[in-house]
Amino acid sequence: RIPNWWKNRSDSFKVSVKIGENNLSRLTFNSLLDFNVELSLGGETITRNEAKRLLAESEGLAFIKNKWVEIDHDTLRETLLAYERAQSLSKEGAMSLVEAMRLELNAGKVFAVSSDAHEFEISNGAWLQTVFSNLVCPDSLPAITCGKNFKAELRAYQAKGLNWLYYMRSLGLGACLADDMGLGKTIQIIALLNHLYSSHGKDTGKALIVIPATLIGNWMSELKRFAPHLACCVIHPMEHDNLDGTDTGFIDANAVFITTYGMIARYEWLSNLHWEYLILDEAQMIKNPHTKQTKAVKRLKAAHRIAMTGTPIENRLSDLWSIFDFINPGLLGSAKEFTGFTKGLKDSPHGYARLKKVVSPFILRRLKTDKAVITDLPEKIEMKTYAALSKKQAVLYSALVDDLSRSLEKAKEGIQRKGLLLAALLKFKQICNHPDQYLGQKAYIEPESGKFARLREICETIGEKRERALVFTQFKEITAALADYLEGVFGHKGLVLHGEVAVKKRKEVVDAFQGHAYVPFMVLSIKAGGVGLNLTAANHVIHFDRWWNPAVENQATDRAFRIGQKKNVVVHKFITKGTIEEKIDLMIEDKIKLASDILPDSQENWITEMNNEELLNLFALSV
Question: Are 176 and 323 in contact (CB under 8 A)?
């Protein structure tokens, strides 16, 4: 029997694996790394025979290595089993980088034992540690040039990003450039391509850049501006007629190709070509591994892969898995294995640290708020703007709560209940915006909406200063009404951009807003206007209704808060007092704290998991 005074003094058994001690001339995912395995007790190495001798003794205290230790047969048996399995792998001579990373994430799974992760110590050898240190902190990497005829001078952090991207390419590893929105990811990629084609010419191979359709004009302008000698072609019906893949002349004549996520599935011949570089902009577009779009992108063949995104995780860790499954397939295991790992994070929080250690070398992320990165960007001032319900809004809102209460009593569990709640959520948002949006009418009289009244107060001040505003909404159907209303407030016409504005037209809209003529406002649907656009002529951002995902809202805000902005940016987030908008905003304040770690979990679907009582409390009007 073990005395109580001893129980906190027991030394644990541990399997220690050190990977990558010896130098390799080139590291790739297929490279085989040396590794060795040790069994230790309280930091001292013991042999397999010594462990077996302890296992043969009765449970309790045993004397070994000049100390008394506690023997728990189940724990020791599993640790010894893990050691033997690791030894059998070691005898095969080497381990791939993918295997090494999977071991870091989930040693128990790899060694097929149920022991907790604290019984394994996975460490990098001297050479591999040096490689990863360079990747995590690229300041010491060798500098490369931007290549011939590059028409810009990179900022210091952008030059380091270029060096890091080139180093990742030289190692044969996929990379995720995840700089904060507005820090110039596009120019770093263009500088990399320009350097490669300047150095190696036609031998460099072809680069395919996949982007949202809204960014075609932006990428073409940036390429022409910074690397005018880089031959580029857009693979899209609006730019090229013969796109059936039979005419390869335009492929031979160009180095860089741009297409959209929607075109990948449409032009299957793209997946028959072998690209030297495959680059995804706004890579969160493939966050759902089950969509046709994501599967089509992952069928593309390429030697080197880069994902660009300011939001590598939008809602859940599976977003990160899908991006890594693109840049470095297998690194985080299969989708099923990774789901199993993430499910265990609640009970084993130190798993977050292990995940961060595994993914950090492959992600380069710098933040605008870091003064060590950029010192000349103005401040961003965020404020909540509260509006009261009008009488008409309050009546409609209360009636909808009563209707929802009756419907919930009848609704069956599962997809029917979920659909009911998401539809109700949409209706509550519409009422909070303006009764006419909910009722499908077109008058949009100001006194009937508290938000419209607040919008006037803010925009009159903006107009007096001759400043400009971006007004974001998730509803395309209200954009015209908002534009008409704001025209009356400012006494000037503004602009509108949503998903039905033609791709060719969008660049004209952006250029007009950014031009010298005073255009006081632009109303944008958050899906069409929330990514990729440079709208630094505005220094006010108004979120008229809330998306309730901080990553998406921040993306939209950063259309104005980015390099090139000369003024402080003021962000107004509209919230209707006493409604679901206010209650969810308070809940998100708690949830958003996770974003700085690794998991920003703030999507609307979580509402559907509440029970009926919680839901009715959430929706209830509390003015």
Answer: yes
Q: Which residues of 181-210 are buried (b: 16+ CB within 10 A; e: fewer)?
A: bbbbbbbbbbbbbbbbbbeeeeebbbbbbb
Give alpha helix (H) positions in 35-155: 48-56, 73-91, 97-105, 107-110, 126-136
Closest of 374, 358, 331, 372 to residue 135, by C-alpha: 358
pLDDT single digits (tens) 570-620? 999 999 988 999 888 887 775 554 444 433 333 455 566 677 777 777 888
Cβ-contact 273, 298 below 8 angstroms:
no
Give the side-chain half-sphere CA count within 13 A for 37. Answer: 26
Query: Which phi and psi (to 5°) does residue 475 adopt?
Result: -105, 115
The amino acid that residue 550 corresponds to is P
Q: What is the pLDDT of residues 87-124, one digit of tens each?
A: 776 666 566 777 777 777 666 666 666 545 446 777 77
Which residues are 279's β-sheet partners?
Answer: 209, 306
- Amino acid residing at 600: P
3-state secondary structure 454-500: HHHHHHHHHHHCCCCEEEEECCHHHHHHHHHHHHHHHCCCCEEECCC
For residue 275, CA distances in Å to 268, 411, 608 come to 14, 51, 43
pTM (2 decimals)?
0.72
Residue 205 Rama label (left phi>0; alpha psi -120 to 50; beta): left
Query: Residue 421 is encoded by which pair of tokens?
Result: 């709640």
* Per-residue CA distances from 1 to 60, 68, 131 (Å): 6, 14, 49
C-alpha R_g of the chain: 28
Which tokens is 310 given?
A: 């300011």
